Structure formats: C-alpha cells, structure tokens
Amino acid sequence: MDQFRGQARLPKSAIPKRYDIRLKPDLTACTFAGFVAIDIDIVGNTNFIVLNAADLFINSASVSYSSSSKVLQPVKVELVEADEILVLEFAETLPNGIGVLDIVFDGVLNDKMKGFYRSTYELNGEKKNMAVTQFEPADARRCFPCWDEPACKATFKITLDVPAELVALSNMPVIEEKVNGDLKTVSYQETPIMSTYLVAVVVGLFDYVEDHTSDGVKVRVYCQVGKTKQGKFALHVAVKTLELYKGYFAVPYALPSWI
C-alpha cells in the first residue's frame, strides 16, 4: 500500500459514476452513521481501490458485479489519515467494467466548520444542534468515502434518516418522506453530474420565506424559527440573480423549479 502514500492525485484505475448515500445524524451525540454504494468503472488491471476518506470509521467494504453473483471482500482496509485516503486491497485482480462498491461507516459531527459538522441555534432560550455540510474545496471525504477531486464527477442520490420534527435539506427536491415514530426517512431526486464538493445536506429546525422568478422557479431562503424577516433581502437577491443569469447566459435554470 505504500505506493499510494504521499501522492497528489488518486490513481485512475477506478472511475466513480454514481453515489447512493444514506446518512443518519445523531444531533445529541454529534455523530452520524452512513452507507454509500458507489457505481465504479474499473478501467485498469489492479487489486486496489483507492479513494478519499478522512475522520471516518470504516465498518465494512465490498465490491459486487451485476454480471455475476460474486462479492469481493478486501483482504486489507487501511485509512491513511496523513493523505486522507482509504485503500482497499483485494486478493485478486478486480474485473474490468462496472461494479458497485459498498461501504458502511461512521463519523463525528465535528466543530471545525468543514465536512459534516455541527452548528447551533437558539429556540426559546435553549441551545439546539443542527447538522450542516461544507465540502468546498475538498471536505466531502469527511462525510462519506468518495473520489473527492473536482474532475471526478458523478451523480448523487441522497437519503437522510432524521428526527421527524426537523427539516432536512439537500441539493434536490424531496421525492419521498416516510415517518416511522420519532424518525423520518427523506429521499431526494438524483442530482445531475457534478463534483463532490457541491453535495449539500442540512438538518435542523427552520422557517423559510419563499418567492418565484418571473418564469415560475420557486426560491426559498431557510432561516432560524422566528427570524424570517432576516431572510427577505437574501430572497429578493436570489430571485433577481436567477433572472439576471437566465438573461445574461441565455440559459434557463437547469434544475427542477425548486431550490
């Protein structure tokens, strides 16, 4: 595994195509549990998969292929914190083509304002925690194992398990929300192809103000409960900016009409 240490870039033997990510933050313990299934294209002869990970605890990993029933388990799993990489070594050469890399992991909602971190707000004089992401430029690796380089673009399917009374936000509109007792599972539409640093997740108790552009794109600004007045200027600027960009670039807003 020493060949991967101290390298500026990840090896190109595996290319990510799609991420299916599920996160369950615990806002009391300030931890989170996670699972990611990554569709990868193995394009070189290798028995290693190397991707980015930092401040995570890896519980299990495996690679499977739809063309066969074979599931490959790594013989060695090493998280190299100095280089923020996760190295999976397999006993045999990985078959070329599309496979699925499954990883189960845990993490900490840190107080460093990067990765998947905790922030606070007050409600009726009581301090509450919320979970927030900040991945730019290279901190998605602190939330889920990934190819955390801007050129390694893919699509992202996000699912969140959160307390039922809280608001859960991500890049795309909600397609399904199921409540099961004190928890709810929120699933979002799959994103367009994009870099890892653009993935976003926010979990907390929020109000919002809402408006629409002249061509019907819904725009919301979320804020602390009881402070919607403080979001009105940001909402006004966001609506006008979308309309300006549409005219300047001669390109309509490309995502579903919800942000």
In short:
It comes from Salix purpurea. The chain has 259 residues and is mainly β.
Description:
The protein is mainly beta and 259 residues long. It has 2 domains: 2-204, tricorn interacting facor f3 domain (Immunoglobulin-like, Sandwich), CATH 2.60.40; 209-249. The protein is built from 1 helix and 17 strands. It has one helix at 232-249; strands at 14-26, 31-42, 48-52, 56-64, 71-72, 76-80, 85-89, 97-108, 115-123, 126-134, 155-163, 167-170, 174-180, 183-188, 201-204, 206-212, 218-224. An 8-stranded mixed beta sheet has the order 5-4-8-2-1-11-14-13, with no helix packed on it. It has a 4-stranded antiparallel beta sheet with strand order 9-10-15-12, with no helix packed on it. The longest helix is centred in the last third of the chain and has 18 residues, at 232-249. The mean pLDDT is 95. Residues 16-198 form the Aminopeptidase N-like N-terminal domain. InterPro entries: Aminopeptidase_N-like_N, Aminopeptidase_N-like_N_sf, M1_APN-typ, Peptidase_M1, Peptidase_M1_aminopeptidases. It comes from Salix purpurea (Purple osier willow). Pfam families: Peptidase_M1_N.
Summarize this structure as a short list of keywords or feature phrases.
single chain, 259 residues, mainly beta, Immunoglobulin-like, 17 strands, 7% helix, globular, hydrolase, metalloprotease, zinc ion binding, Peptidase_M1, metalloaminopeptidase activity
